[in-house]
Design brief:
Helices cover about 40% and strands about 10% of the residues. Helix 8 links the parallel strand 3 and strand 4. It is globular and about 60 Å long. The structure holds zinc ion.
C-alpha cells in the first residue's frame, strides 16, 4: 500500500474525525462509555443513580455493578435515542418511568459521558496526534486546519487551540460567551453531534462555551475568565442558570434521533457550515470513522458536500483488523463501505491514526 499523497500548498483539506480518532488517544469508544461509567470511579457517582436505575429496571442489567459484563449494557446512543423518543412523545416507559424521571435519566446519562471522558483523558499523552496533524497541515498548505468532528470529546478542540497558539477555532455556531466572541480565530472545527463544552438554553437559545476544572479543557486558551464552569453545569444542573433568561441550560449532545429534528438552531448551522466546508475542499481525510450504513444523515451530508471529489482525493485512515493488519480494502469491512460510497480509487490506509501520521508526516 503506497503512502498518501503529501499535502501541498494547493490543497484545501477537510479532516473528518470519528470515534476511532479518540480511541487512538486513550479515550472511550461510544460503546464503552456506560460500562466505564460504573467501573472507573467517576466523580460524583450519585449523579449516575438515575441512569443506573433505568439500566437495571428497563434493560435488566444486573443490580450490582461488580456482577456486570460489558455485554450486559445497551449501546449509549441507543439509550439516549430511546429516552429522547419517549420524552418527545410524552410517553412513559412503564408506570415508574414518567417524563420527569426519564429527563433525569437523560441528564444522568449526559453526566456519564462527561465523567468518563474527563476521567479517561485527564492525563493526556504529551504527544497529541491531533495537534501534530493540524500543525503539519498548516505547514504544508499555508492555511489553518479545518475539521468536522463526530465526537463529543475535546481532543480536537484542544489541538486546534494548541496549533493556533492559544486562539480558538471557528465553531460555526453562535457562541455567546465573551471570551470566545472577543478572541481571534484560527482554524475551523465543526462538531456535528454537539460537544461536551457547549451549554445551551432551550428557552432563549443562548449557547455558551464552558471551561472544565480539570484543565483538560483549554489549558492554554486565552481569555477564558468569563466562561461558565462546565463541571458545575453537569454536576449541579438544576442550580445553574442561563445568563440571559435564567432557565437551567443543557449540554449539547445530539443522538441519531434528535439530530433529525434540528430543534437546536446552532446544530443546524454547524451542519450547514460543514456542507460549505466540504464543497470548498479539494481533499478529504477520514480518521477513525467507520461509515456505518445507518448514519444516513452523515452519508447524505458527504454526498451533498463532497460529491465533486474524485475517489483518489479521499483518504481513509482506519485501524487494521486485528488478525490481518493492512489487508486489502476489498476484504476490510470499512474499506468496502467507503468504496461502495465513493468509488474504487479511494486512498485506504488501514494502519491506524498514529501509523498513518508516522508514515506520512513524521
Ligand atoms: Zn436563556
Amino acid at each position: 500500500m503506497p503512502p498518501s499523497a503529501p499535502f501541498t500548498p494547493e490543497d484545501r483539506p477537510v479532516i473528518v474525525l470519528g470515534a476511532g480518532a479518540t480511541k487512538a488517544c486513550g479515550g472511550p469508544l461510544t460503546g464503552e462509555i456506560l460500562p466505564r461509567a460504573f467501573g472507573l470511579g467517576v466523580q460524583h457517582a450519585e449523579l449516575l443513580e438515575p441512569i443506573d436505575r433505568l439500566l437495571i429496571e428497563k434493560f435488566n442489567v444486573p443490580e450490582n455493578a461488580a456482577d456486570r459484563r460489558e455485554s450486559d449494557y445497551p449501546p449509549l446512543p441507543l439509550v439516549l435515542s430511546l429516552l429522547d423518543m419517549a420524552i418527545d412523545r410524552r410517553h412513559a416507559l412503564g408506570p415508574q418511568w414518567d417524563s420527569a424521571r426519564l429527563r433525569e435519566a437523560r441528564a444522568s446519562a449526559e453526566y456519564a459521558v462527561f465523567g468518563v471522558i474527563e476521567r479517561m483523558l485527564e492525563h493526556p499523552d504529551s504527544f497529541s496526534p491531533h495537534t501534530h496533524l493540524f500543525r503539519r497541515i498548516t505547514q504544508a498548505t499555508g492555511a489553518p486546519a479545518r475539521a468536522i468532528s463526530l465526537n463529543y470529546d475535546l481532543l480536537a478542540d484542544n489541538a486546534m487551540i494548541e496549533a493556533g497558539d492559544g486562539r480558538y477555532p471557528e465553531y460555526g455556531c453562535d457562541i455567546a460567551t465573551g471570551a470566545y466572541k472577543e478572541s481571534e480565530r484560527h482554524g475551523e472545527l465543526l462538531k456535528l453531534h454537539g460537544s461536551l463544552n457547549l451549554i445551551y438554553c432551550p428557552t432563549c437559545h443562548r449557547l455558551d462555551m464552558g471551561i472544565g476544572r480539570s484543565g483538560y479543557t483549554y489549558k492554554i486558551a486565552r481569555n477564558t475568565f468569563d466562561a461558565p464552569a462546565l463541571d458545575e453545569s453537569f454536576e449541579r444542573r438544576r442550580e445553574t442558570k442561563c445568563r440571559d433568561c435564567g432557565t437551567p441550560p443543557r449540554p449539547v449532545m445530539i443522538t441519531p434521533t434528535t439530530m433529525k429534528d434540528y430543534r437546536n438552531p446552532h446544530i443546524s448551522r454547524v451542519w450547514y457550515q460543514a456542507q460549505r466546508a466540504l464543497r470548498d475542499c479539494n481533499r478529504l481525510v477520514f480518521i477513525g470513522y467507520s461509515l456505518p450504513w445507518d448514519d444516513t444523515d452523515v452519508i447524505y451530508l458527504l454526498k451533498r458536500g463532497a460529491g465533486h471529489l474524485p475517489p483518489e482525493r479521499i483518504t481513509i485512515v482506519e485501524h487494521g483488523e486485528p488478525h490481518a493488519p493492512g489487508k486489502p480494502r476489498d476484504e476490510h469491512e470499512v474499506g468496502r463501505r467507503y468504496q461502495a460510497i465513493f468509488g474504487r480509487g479511494v486512498d485506504f490506509q488501514p494502519i491506524g491514526f498514529l501509523g498513518w501520521l508516522h508514515a506520512n508526516m513524521p
